[in-house]
């Protein structure tokens, strides 16, 4: 490697690494020199390097001390040059650490992990979903993409934040979209419903264009935009308005009294919905007999998907085929 190439490499490395290399070079150099000047006091090069590090860092154990005038002059030079370098290095490392933590909170750091879930949009639904993931799936890696947050306390939420628009390629690249396993796009509550749906569809198009295999869940508010969301590449569409309207209706016309906060929603928040293939041992069985077997596992068989049609609470004598899928509700477990 030529001197020119070395200096090009040196000045392209991070500042803290350059300082570490410079400090190491000075300590080794002074250690070798003091060993050469006073071999009786510093019998090995390592003893010289040890003295240089202790002296340069101003610790000063005193186990090795130069006795000649030239040795002491080198000691003075080491304290002036090396001590300043060590102090500057420690200050730079501390400043870099603080800056890195600030950049994490402000969403300026690229995510380099794989197999993660990307959330587009920061709102109350996202917060609750993150809390549920942290409780029931603590090993899940979550990356949040949002353009409205100035910063987020990453230690509190244990997620990686990327500041930017979820429909822009550069932002999605910083979220490492190519290595993500799933993306959840929530509607922006600050927009009108139609505008929020258009923004969600645009984000869906951008994500699908950059990762053809990722599983995308998109929240849509208006029925008219559901078809467009499917065309954009959404694998699953959450119609939150329809869901909430149904809950309001059932709460309004349900019979009986339930103690406060013991509602259907609070109960469902502790349950996990699964769609599974029919096990081989259940092929040819009736829906009723299968329901009993799932009850033995403390799971509830809600319905069945047959020939692309979902049937909730189908006839008890309905026979299960291998191509069917079962809709099961089970308790979330940590």
From TrEMBL:
Membrane topology of the entry: Multi-pass membrane protein
Record-annotated membrane-spanning stretches: 15-37, 49-66, 73-91
Chief subcellular location: membrane
Classification via InterPro entries: K_chnl_dom, NAD(P)-bd_dom_sf, RCK_N, Trk_Ktr_HKT_K-transport
Protein name: Potassium channel protein
A Gene Ontology term for the protein's cellular component: plasma membrane
Segments forming domain RCK N-terminal: 114-239
Domain of life per record: Bacteria
Organism: Pontibacillus yanchengensis Y32
Cellular location(s): Cell membrane
PANTHER family hit by this protein: POTASSIUM CHANNEL PROTEIN 2-RELATED-RELATED, POTASSIUM CHANNEL PROTEIN YUGO-RELATED
GO biological processes: monoatomic ion transmembrane transport; potassium ion transport
Keywords: Ion channel, Ion transport, Membrane, Transmembrane, Transmembrane helix, Transport
């Amino acid at each position: 490697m030529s001197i020119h190439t070395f200096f090009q490499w040196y000045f392209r490395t991070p500042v803290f690494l350059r300082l570490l290399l410079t400090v190491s070079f000075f300590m080794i150099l002074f250690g070798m020199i003091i060993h050469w000047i006073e071999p009786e006091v510093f019998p090995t090069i390592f003893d010289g390097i040890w003295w240089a590090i202790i002296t340069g860092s101003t610790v000063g154990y005193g186990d090795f001390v130069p006795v000649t005038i030239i040795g002491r002059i080198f000691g003075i030079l080491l304290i002036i040059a090396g001590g300043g370098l060590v102090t500057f290095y420690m200050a730079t490392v501390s400043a870099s650490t603080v800056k890195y933590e600030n950049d994490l909170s402000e969403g300026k750091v690229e995510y380099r992990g794989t197999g993660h879930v990307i959330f587009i949009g920061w709102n109350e639904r996202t917060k609750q979903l993150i809390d549920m993931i942290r409780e029931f799936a603590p090993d899940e890696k979550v990356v949040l993409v949002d353009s409205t947050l100035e910063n987020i306390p990453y230690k509190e939420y244990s997620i990686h934040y990327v500041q930017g628009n979820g429909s822009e390629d550069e932002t999605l690249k910083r979220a490492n979209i190519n290595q993500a396993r799933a993306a959840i796009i929530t509607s922006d509550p600050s927009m009108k419903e139609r505008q929020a749906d258009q923004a969600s569809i645009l984000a869906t198009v951008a994500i699908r264009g950059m990762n053809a295999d990722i599983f995308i869940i998109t929240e849509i508010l208006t029925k008219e935009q559901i078809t467009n969301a499917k065309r954009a590449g959404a694998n699953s569409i959450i119609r939150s308005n329809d869901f909430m309207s149904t809950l309001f209706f059932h709460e309004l016309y349900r019979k009986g009294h339930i103690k406060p906060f013991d509602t259907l929603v609070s109960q469902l928040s502790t349950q996990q919905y699964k769609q599974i293939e029919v096990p081989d041992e259940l092929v040819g069985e009736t829906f009723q007999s299968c329901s009993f077997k799932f009850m033995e596992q403390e799971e509830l068989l809600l319905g069945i998907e047959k020939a692309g049609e979902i049937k909730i609470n189908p006839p008890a004598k309905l026979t299960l085929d291998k191509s069917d899928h079962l809709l099961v509700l089970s308790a979330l477990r940590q």
